[in-house]
Amino acid sequence: MTAPAPSARPSLRRTLLKLHRWLSLGAAVFWLLQALTGILIVFHWEITDAGIAGAHRPTDLAAIERRIDTLALPGSAARAASIWTAAGAADRYNVYYADAEGTDRSVRIAGDGTILHMPRPDEESVMGFLVGFHHDLLGSWGSWIVAISGVLLCSNLVLGLVAAWPKRGTWRIALKPATRGPAAARLYTWHRAVGLWAAIPALVIAATGTMLKFEDGIGDLIGAESVSLPANPPAGEPIGFAAAARAGLAAIPGSTLTQVAWPKPDDATWRVRVRAPGEIRRAYGGSFVLVDANTGKVRGTFPAGEAAPANAFMSALFPIHTGE
């Protein structure tokens, strides 16, 4: 009597293929939505600005300060928080402030302080919805879902790449899809070829996006230090926005203003962000100047080009992910 032959154990390649297939099917819809929203919001700054009418006005820092003073009157309960470049059309800015009732507000202004758009506190644009969906599914729990799905996507891309890796001498065949034969076979060769061509770029995009969801933890892990100085106690009337912005721009010649954050009650420091010449971050830049709100002098200058390797790595994640 002959004993039955033991069943052959599935090969590692077959196991990887099966795991890759089921992971892909399980998360395919979510990944597709992430990919589509990611493509749509690449130019969300430009698209948003295109929908807001208004002639171009060169940046006039004094005029912008006067406009901000009308939004958050000095001595009132209203408080300005920050101003950011709109990052779409040139010389447009978003001012963020709390009104006298404590409601957070924002307003889009031209370079001369002219109000272009003042959304209602509960108003949300289509592009804003898409950005929120792509970043965190419109909520804190969604942020964790996006982060976990990013890790899953990265691992699945690696599994797929390993499973599809051609044997020596078969690369040309693997990279060129079949045009003849059964439909199922041709579809497989197309899937494999597209995967081999696109896996590395897709992995870079997915990995950088996932790391952005764990930005603080990864920054701490690799030793990236935030731009900061010891608190500067307030002493008298602080300098205004225009003086602080001019000091920041002068500290890094040739730079463009991208953001200014107002001093805090316990720290009389203006935080000025600029885009220095040659930076890879197109929209907001990654260079900072801290200006003393008591005296108007520069407390510290932090050009992106002189950043430590860990800080440069963290700063590069966003432009690599978005293709800035």
From TrEMBL:
Alphabetically ordered keywords of this record: Membrane, Transmembrane, Transmembrane helix
Pfam families: PepSY_TM
UniProt KW Membrane keyword: yes
UniProt xrefs under InterPro entries: PepSY-ass_TM
Keyword Transmembrane helix attached: yes
Membrane-spanning parts: 22-45, 141-165
PANTHER family with a match to the protein in the record: IRON-REGULATED INNER MEMBRANE PROTEIN-RELATED
Protein name: PepSY domain-containing protein
Source species: Sphingomonas koreensis
